[in-house]
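Table S2 (continued). Query chain:
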Amino acid sequence: MNQSPQAKSENTIENDQSFSRKQGFSDIRELLNKAFTGFQEYDYFRADTLTEEEAGQFYKKRTENLKAWLAEEGGGADQFTKTEKEFLVNQYKSLETPWYYESSDGFDAWFTWSPTICMLVVLTVGFLVSGIFSCEKRYRAASVYFASYHGRKKAVLAKIKAGVLTATLVYWGIMLLYSAVVLGCLGLQGSQCVIQTQFGKWKSFYAMTIGQEYAYILLGGYIGCLFFTLLTMLISSWSHSGTAAVIVPFALILAPSFLAETQIPFVDKILGLLPDQLLQVELVISHFSLYSLGGKIIGALPVLLVLYSVLCAGLLPVVYRIYRRKEVRE
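Corresponding output:
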């Protein structure tokens, strides 16, 4: 195509005609550019200079670029331990090839706004549940509430169930509606492609398809929504203040963004385990966030999902006990 008369013509219209022929496989062209321009570099025209022999080294080149970056001073050499470097290289090598590819415009569009939608849902739910445990104090009805026969047991459980149900219905209602609109209009194609075929996931070490990534984002967002909901109810039950209950989770979601990309390994590892990461799982999958558990290296995603599932389960009885006993002391 680059050698065609239209491409070499001085006529702009003919140049555009030649360029339009490349648009049908522009995504594959981008993958070639990434594979053959180094780990931290990019050259839009690199694919134009490749020979057939070079292009055949596509998968091998991706791993070689990672190894070169991990050995580079000021790059991966300073950020990862020897064990972590071996883990990353093995993850790259273990990815099954050749990759299946088809357009995934629907999922690409869905992933773009999913973190924003998740955060808005969590903030909305936080506002809705913030008054569940503070309303009796605000309306001076606590004495009547706790004097009732089930006031200290079933009524408290009913409040917790109401908060969890609110979070569940609002989260899944909005996320499924968002999915129906975006994927319904743009299609479900590409769900079987590996995530490395996406522009922002080229370097990811996770072995999963785009469809699996979609499921992980939904699951992570729901666990994060439940955690922030229970945290809001915990603060509300302890402080009897709906305002404090809303502000603390809000700050916990936004504050880490001001400390992101510090290039300080210890700080980055802490930030990588904060609950706001569950609301932006797509970024977690894109980054090289690694943790050592029992001598085994593991990515941040499974750690976050397990950690906050356990914390959610642990917060339930804490909220129950605090609210039952709060009024007794007062």
